[in-house]
Amino acid sequence: YGFLPEAQAAYERAVMLAPDAFRWNYLLAHTLSAQEKYDEAIARFVRAIKLEPKYVPAQVTLADTYLRAGQPDAALDIMIPLRDKYPNEPLLNYTLGMAYFAKNEPIWAIQYLKPVLDRNPDLGGVRVVVAKCFEKLDQKERVTEYLKGWKPNKAVPTMRDPELVSIYRYATGTEAEQRKGLAYLASGRFPEALKHFEKALTFSP
Fold first, then answer.
1. Distance CA 144, CA 205 (A)
2. DSSP annotation string for the chain
3. Do 192 and 184 meet the contact criterion of CB atoms below 8 Å apart?
């Protein structure tokens, strides 16, 4: 609901009570990042990733936080190995492209941003950056090509966090089981989804 300082205080207490719980470290990091407290957020994301090193959304969010903190090289150090594992993931390519754009390397930025836009032509936030890249390269006809007849918007690839299992692994109760069930449902793992929905009904029959 936008009460970020209050959320931060609650998550800080949760971390104090359970310092090795990935969930609270990860959510505290998000709260700090949303308040532009980037140094604190980065430290907390690093802590969370040590607790759940295979949780890719945390690594992507850390890279994005480095980028917003004005550290594109640090973002690239995280994103390049991830992109090799997930070459067709739009958010990874977008974050890579934005890192190169921040480094004023438009050719590399286009290499990663253009495929995202080709597959998702309505992503206006990506379209504008691609046009700016061509402008930096003094290719004005390409700028016109990308912006002509297009209704502006700020849409960019969003964080795909399909399972949320790492966040809700140790949580119990109706909401937690519903979220786990929906996550497995979205990924087509129906037996696991059914198990969690049935457990949710034991809490709220």
1. 59
2. ---HHHHHHHHHHHHHH-TT-HHHHHHHHHHHHHTT-HHHHHHHHHHHHHHSTT-HHHHHHHHHHHHHTT-HHHHHHHHHHHHHH-TT-HHHHHHHHHHHHHTT-HHHHHHHHHHHHHH-TT-HHHHHHHHHHHHHTT-HHHHHHHHTT-------PPP-----HHHHTT--SHHHHHHHHHHHHHTT-HHHHHHHHHHHHHH--
3. yes
pLDDT mean by block of 10 residues, the chain; 205 residues: 94 96 92 95 96 89 94 95 88 93 96 93 92 94 88 82 63 85 82 93 93
- CB atoms near residue 23 (< 10 Å): 21
What single-letter amino acid sits at 8? Q
How do residues 124-137 score in pLDDT, each as one tens digit? 999 999 999 999 99
Rounded Cα distance between 80 and 165, Å, is 25
